[in-house]
Request: fold
Amino acid sequence: MNREIPIFFTIDDGYAPFLAVALNSAIKNSNPQRQYRAIVLHQGLNETNTTRLKALETENFKIELTPMKANFEALDDRMSNRLRCDYFTLTIYFRLFIPAMFPQYDKGIYIDSDVVLTDDIAKLYDTDIGDNFIGACNDLSIADTPPLVAYTENAIGVKKEEYINSGVLLMNLKKMRECDFEGHFLNLLNTYHFDSIAPDQDYINAMCNGKIYYLDECWDAMPNDAKPPLEHTSLIHYNLFSKPWCYDGIQYGEEFWKYAEDSGYIDEIKAYKADYSDDKKKADGDCLDLLVRRGIEISQKEVTFKNMHEKGVKIRL
Reply:
Protein backbone atom coordinates (compact mmCIF):
# COMPACT_ATOMS: atom_id res chain seq x y z
CA MET A 1 0.00 0.00 0.00
CA ASN A 2 1.88 3.06 -1.26
CA ARG A 3 -0.91 5.58 -1.57
CA GLU A 4 0.15 9.06 -0.52
CA ILE A 5 -1.45 10.15 2.74
CA PRO A 6 -2.67 13.78 2.59
CA ILE A 7 -2.73 15.64 5.90
CA PHE A 8 -4.26 19.13 5.87
CA PHE A 9 -3.33 22.02 8.17
CA THR A 10 -4.16 25.71 8.14
CA ILE A 11 -2.13 28.43 9.90
CA ASP A 12 -1.14 32.07 9.94
CA ASP A 13 2.40 33.38 10.45
CA GLY A 14 2.18 33.46 14.24
CA TYR A 15 1.37 29.76 14.48
CA ALA A 16 4.37 28.55 12.44
CA PRO A 17 6.38 27.46 15.54
CA PHE A 18 3.58 25.22 16.82
CA LEU A 19 2.92 23.75 13.39
CA ALA A 20 6.65 22.91 13.24
CA VAL A 21 6.27 20.85 16.43
CA ALA A 22 3.21 19.06 15.04
CA LEU A 23 5.02 18.29 11.77
CA ASN A 24 8.18 17.16 13.56
CA SER A 25 6.17 14.74 15.70
CA ALA A 26 4.31 13.37 12.67
CA ILE A 27 7.56 12.87 10.76
CA LYS A 28 9.31 11.20 13.71
CA ASN A 29 6.46 8.69 14.02
CA SER A 30 5.98 8.06 10.30
CA ASN A 31 6.58 4.73 8.59
CA PRO A 32 9.54 5.00 6.17
CA GLN A 33 7.73 2.61 3.84
CA ARG A 34 4.77 5.01 3.42
CA GLN A 35 4.43 8.34 1.61
CA TYR A 36 2.95 11.37 3.37
CA ARG A 37 2.14 14.89 2.22
CA ALA A 38 1.39 17.70 4.68
CA ILE A 39 -0.66 20.30 2.81
CA VAL A 40 -0.41 23.54 4.77
CA LEU A 41 -2.76 26.30 3.69
CA HIS A 42 -1.59 29.54 5.17
CA GLN A 43 -2.49 33.19 5.47
CA GLY A 44 0.52 35.46 5.08
CA LEU A 45 3.33 33.07 5.93
CA ASN A 46 6.61 34.95 5.53
CA GLU A 47 9.57 33.65 3.56
CA THR A 48 11.65 32.82 6.63
CA ASN A 49 8.93 30.64 8.15
CA THR A 50 8.28 29.02 4.78
CA THR A 51 11.95 28.04 4.51
CA ARG A 52 12.16 26.79 8.09
CA LEU A 53 9.03 24.65 7.83
CA LYS A 54 10.14 23.18 4.50
CA ALA A 55 13.46 22.25 6.14
CA LEU A 56 11.60 19.60 8.18
CA GLU A 57 10.69 17.73 4.98
CA THR A 58 12.05 14.19 4.51
CA GLU A 59 12.20 11.74 1.63
CA ASN A 60 8.86 10.16 2.51
CA PHE A 61 7.18 13.12 4.21
CA LYS A 62 6.64 16.09 1.91
CA ILE A 63 5.52 19.53 3.08
CA GLU A 64 3.50 21.65 0.67
CA LEU A 65 2.94 25.28 1.70
CA THR A 66 0.33 27.16 -0.30
CA PRO A 67 -1.62 30.41 0.21
CA MET A 68 -5.19 29.75 1.24
CA LYS A 69 -6.55 32.55 -0.93
CA ALA A 70 -5.16 30.99 -4.10
CA ASN A 71 -6.88 27.71 -3.28
CA PHE A 72 -10.20 29.41 -2.61
CA GLU A 73 -9.97 31.28 -5.92
CA ALA A 74 -9.28 28.00 -7.72
CA LEU A 75 -12.58 26.47 -6.63
CA ASP A 76 -14.70 25.48 -9.57
CA ASP A 77 -17.78 27.25 -10.93
CA ARG A 78 -20.28 25.00 -9.21
CA MET A 79 -19.31 26.73 -5.99
CA SER A 80 -18.17 30.23 -6.95
CA ASN A 81 -21.66 31.56 -7.67
CA ARG A 82 -22.67 30.77 -4.12
CA LEU A 83 -19.80 32.44 -2.28
CA ARG A 84 -21.84 35.25 -0.83
CA CYS A 85 -19.60 35.52 2.22
CA ASP A 86 -16.37 37.47 2.46
CA TYR A 87 -13.04 35.70 2.24
CA PHE A 88 -12.31 36.02 5.97
CA THR A 89 -15.62 34.39 6.90
CA LEU A 90 -14.92 31.45 4.61
CA THR A 91 -11.44 30.82 6.03
CA ILE A 92 -13.02 30.12 9.42
CA TYR A 93 -14.77 27.19 7.75
CA PHE A 94 -11.71 26.02 5.80
CA ARG A 95 -11.94 22.32 6.67
CA LEU A 96 -15.47 22.13 5.22
CA PHE A 97 -14.08 23.05 1.79
CA ILE A 98 -11.31 20.42 1.66
CA PRO A 99 -13.41 17.97 -0.44
CA ALA A 100 -14.07 20.62 -3.12
CA MET A 101 -10.59 22.16 -3.01
CA PHE A 102 -8.73 18.86 -3.40
CA PRO A 103 -10.66 16.67 -5.86
CA GLN A 104 -7.53 14.56 -6.47
CA TYR A 105 -7.98 12.89 -3.06
CA ASP A 106 -10.76 10.47 -2.08
CA LYS A 107 -9.67 10.35 1.54
CA GLY A 108 -7.69 12.70 3.76
CA ILE A 109 -6.94 13.86 7.28
CA TYR A 110 -7.45 17.33 8.72
CA ILE A 111 -5.62 18.24 11.93
CA ASP A 112 -5.43 21.42 13.98
CA SER A 113 -1.91 22.71 14.51
CA ASP A 114 -1.98 22.56 18.34
CA VAL A 115 -1.18 18.83 18.39
CA VAL A 116 1.63 16.32 18.63
CA LEU A 117 1.55 12.84 17.12
CA THR A 118 2.80 10.01 19.32
CA ASP A 119 1.98 7.30 16.77
CA ASP A 120 2.05 6.84 13.00
CA ILE A 121 -0.73 8.86 11.40
CA ALA A 122 -0.93 6.21 8.66
CA LYS A 123 -2.79 4.08 11.22
CA LEU A 124 -5.50 6.73 11.39
CA TYR A 125 -5.60 7.01 7.59
CA ASP A 126 -5.98 3.22 7.26
CA THR A 127 -9.04 3.16 9.53
CA ASP A 128 -12.10 1.96 7.65
CA ILE A 129 -14.94 4.39 8.38
CA GLY A 130 -17.34 2.65 6.00
CA ASP A 131 -20.00 4.84 4.41
CA ASN A 132 -19.63 7.64 6.96
CA PHE A 133 -18.61 11.19 6.04
CA ILE A 134 -15.98 11.52 8.74
CA GLY A 135 -14.17 9.70 11.52
CA ALA A 136 -13.71 11.79 14.67
CA CYS A 137 -13.59 11.63 18.46
CA ASN A 138 -16.22 12.65 20.96
CA ASP A 139 -15.42 16.15 22.29
CA LEU A 140 -14.71 15.37 25.93
CA SER A 141 -13.88 19.01 26.72
CA ILE A 142 -17.54 19.83 26.05
CA ALA A 143 -18.89 16.77 27.87
CA ASP A 144 -17.39 17.93 31.20
CA THR A 145 -19.05 21.39 31.11
CA PRO A 146 -22.82 21.23 31.80
CA PRO A 147 -23.74 24.58 30.13
CA LEU A 148 -21.89 23.49 26.98
CA VAL A 149 -23.60 20.09 27.04
CA ALA A 150 -26.91 21.98 27.14
CA TYR A 151 -25.71 24.03 24.16
CA THR A 152 -24.83 20.99 22.02
CA GLU A 153 -28.16 19.33 22.81
CA ASN A 154 -30.44 22.40 22.64
CA ALA A 155 -28.79 24.49 19.92
CA ILE A 156 -27.01 21.93 17.71
CA GLY A 157 -29.46 19.10 18.42
CA VAL A 158 -26.71 16.55 19.05
CA LYS A 159 -26.37 14.37 22.17
CA LYS A 160 -23.21 14.98 24.18
CA GLU A 161 -21.90 11.46 23.51
CA GLU A 162 -22.35 12.06 19.75
CA TYR A 163 -20.87 15.59 19.56
CA ILE A 164 -17.40 15.45 18.03
CA ASN A 165 -14.31 17.62 18.12
CA SER A 166 -13.38 18.83 14.63
CA GLY A 167 -9.67 19.27 15.40
CA VAL A 168 -8.93 15.76 14.10
CA LEU A 169 -10.95 14.54 11.13
CA LEU A 170 -10.55 11.46 8.96
CA MET A 171 -12.52 12.58 5.90
CA ASN A 172 -14.32 10.51 3.28
CA LEU A 173 -13.70 13.20 0.65
CA LYS A 174 -15.24 11.23 -2.20
CA LYS A 175 -18.55 10.72 -0.40
CA MET A 176 -18.60 14.35 0.77
CA ARG A 177 -18.23 15.53 -2.85
CA GLU A 178 -20.94 13.14 -4.02
CA CYS A 179 -23.34 14.69 -1.50
CA ASP A 180 -22.36 18.28 -2.47
CA PHE A 181 -21.17 18.81 1.09
CA GLU A 182 -19.88 22.36 0.62
CA GLY A 183 -22.98 23.36 -1.39
CA HIS A 184 -25.26 22.23 1.43
CA PHE A 185 -23.08 24.06 3.95
CA LEU A 186 -23.11 27.31 1.92
CA ASN A 187 -26.88 27.11 1.54
CA LEU A 188 -27.31 26.80 5.31
CA LEU A 189 -24.76 29.54 6.00
CA ASN A 190 -26.26 32.00 3.52
CA THR A 191 -29.87 31.24 4.50
CA TYR A 192 -29.75 31.02 8.29
CA HIS A 193 -26.42 32.48 9.49
CA PHE A 194 -26.53 30.18 12.50
CA ASP A 195 -24.88 31.69 15.56
CA SER A 196 -22.48 29.24 17.18
CA ILE A 197 -19.58 29.05 19.61
CA ALA A 198 -17.49 26.70 17.46
CA PRO A 199 -18.49 27.64 13.91
CA ASP A 200 -16.94 24.90 11.73
CA GLN A 201 -17.30 22.26 14.44
CA ASP A 202 -20.98 22.99 15.01
CA TYR A 203 -21.81 22.86 11.29
CA ILE A 204 -19.94 19.55 10.96
CA ASN A 205 -21.83 18.09 13.92
CA ALA A 206 -25.22 19.33 12.70
CA MET A 207 -24.69 18.18 9.10
CA CYS A 208 -22.91 14.87 9.70
CA ASN A 209 -24.69 13.53 12.77
CA GLY A 210 -25.67 9.94 12.07
CA LYS A 211 -22.90 9.63 9.48
CA ILE A 212 -19.90 9.81 11.84
CA TYR A 213 -17.51 6.99 12.68
CA TYR A 214 -16.35 7.43 16.29
CA LEU A 215 -12.60 6.97 16.58
CA ASP A 216 -10.79 5.68 19.65
CA GLU A 217 -10.17 8.59 22.03
CA CYS A 218 -6.40 8.00 21.72
CA TRP A 219 -6.59 9.93 18.39
CA ASP A 220 -7.74 13.15 20.07
CA ALA A 221 -6.38 12.97 23.61
CA MET A 222 -6.98 16.31 25.33
CA PRO A 223 -5.46 17.51 28.59
CA ASN A 224 -8.09 17.28 31.32
CA ASP A 225 -7.21 17.79 34.96
CA ALA A 226 -10.46 16.10 36.01
CA LYS A 227 -9.33 12.79 34.50
CA PRO A 228 -6.16 10.70 34.60
CA PRO A 229 -4.09 10.75 31.39
CA LEU A 230 -4.74 8.00 28.87
CA GLU A 231 -2.37 5.05 29.13
CA HIS A 232 -1.90 5.12 25.37
CA THR A 233 -2.12 8.17 23.11
CA SER A 234 -1.73 8.40 19.34
CA LEU A 235 -2.41 12.13 18.96
CA ILE A 236 -2.45 14.74 21.73
CA HIS A 237 -4.58 17.81 21.10
CA TYR A 238 -3.82 20.84 23.29
CA ASN A 239 -7.34 22.16 22.85
CA LEU A 240 -8.73 25.54 23.97
CA PHE A 241 -6.36 26.97 26.63
CA SER A 242 -4.54 23.77 27.64
CA LYS A 243 -1.34 24.76 25.87
CA PRO A 244 2.08 23.87 27.32
CA TRP A 245 3.62 26.84 25.47
CA CYS A 246 1.44 29.10 27.65
CA TYR A 247 1.08 27.28 30.98
CA ASP A 248 3.06 25.02 33.32
CA GLY A 249 1.76 21.63 34.43
CA ILE A 250 -0.35 20.84 31.37
CA GLN A 251 -1.26 17.15 31.08
CA TYR A 252 0.83 15.48 28.33
CA GLY A 253 3.01 18.61 28.26
CA GLU A 254 6.26 16.62 28.26
CA GLU A 255 5.36 15.16 24.85
CA PHE A 256 5.09 18.65 23.39
CA TRP A 257 8.49 19.73 24.70
CA LYS A 258 10.08 16.51 23.44
CA TYR A 259 9.13 17.33 19.85
CA ALA A 260 9.65 21.09 20.27
CA GLU A 261 13.33 20.57 21.12
CA ASP A 262 14.45 19.84 17.55
CA SER A 263 11.57 21.51 15.69
CA GLY A 264 13.77 24.43 14.68
CA TYR A 265 11.69 26.81 16.83
CA ILE A 266 12.58 25.91 20.41
CA ASP A 267 14.00 29.35 21.23
CA GLU A 268 10.91 31.17 19.93
CA ILE A 269 8.58 28.81 21.77
CA LYS A 270 10.42 29.25 25.08
CA ALA A 271 10.39 33.03 24.59
CA TYR A 272 6.66 32.94 23.83
CA LYS A 273 6.00 31.06 27.08
CA ALA A 274 8.21 33.38 29.12
CA ASP A 275 6.26 36.32 27.72
CA TYR A 276 2.84 34.82 28.47
CA SER A 277 1.79 37.39 31.07
CA ASP A 278 -0.81 37.29 33.83
CA ASP A 279 -2.96 39.63 31.73
CA LYS A 280 -2.99 37.09 28.88
CA LYS A 281 -3.88 34.31 31.32
CA LYS A 282 -6.73 36.40 32.74
CA ALA A 283 -7.95 37.06 29.18
CA ASP A 284 -8.04 33.28 28.60
CA GLY A 285 -10.25 32.85 31.66
CA ASP A 286 -12.54 35.68 30.54
CA CYS A 287 -12.76 34.11 27.10
CA LEU A 288 -13.82 30.76 28.55
CA ASP A 289 -16.51 32.48 30.64
CA LEU A 290 -17.75 34.26 27.52
CA LEU A 291 -17.88 30.96 25.63
CA VAL A 292 -20.14 29.46 28.28
CA ARG A 293 -22.36 32.58 28.40
CA ARG A 294 -22.75 32.64 24.63
CA GLY A 295 -23.61 28.95 24.63
CA ILE A 296 -26.49 29.64 27.03
CA GLU A 297 -27.69 32.66 25.00
CA ILE A 298 -27.56 30.87 21.64
CA SER A 299 -29.54 27.91 23.01
CA GLN A 300 -32.44 30.29 23.67
CA LYS A 301 -32.54 31.79 20.18
CA GLU A 302 -35.30 31.02 17.72
CA VAL A 303 -32.96 30.18 14.82
CA THR A 304 -30.81 27.22 15.87
CA PHE A 305 -29.77 24.05 14.09
CA LYS A 306 -32.09 22.04 16.33
CA ASN A 307 -35.13 24.29 15.86
CA MET A 308 -34.76 24.42 12.09
CA HIS A 309 -34.29 20.64 11.95
CA GLU A 310 -37.48 20.14 13.98
CA LYS A 311 -39.33 22.49 11.58
CA GLY A 312 -38.41 20.23 8.69
CA VAL A 313 -35.43 22.13 7.26
CA LYS A 314 -32.85 19.72 5.85
CA ILE A 315 -29.83 20.15 8.13
CA ARG A 316 -28.37 16.64 8.18
CA LEU A 317 -26.99 15.07 5.05
Q: What stands out?
A: The chain has a mean pLDDT of 92. The chain is about 40% helix and 15% strand. The two ends are 31 Å apart (CA to CA).
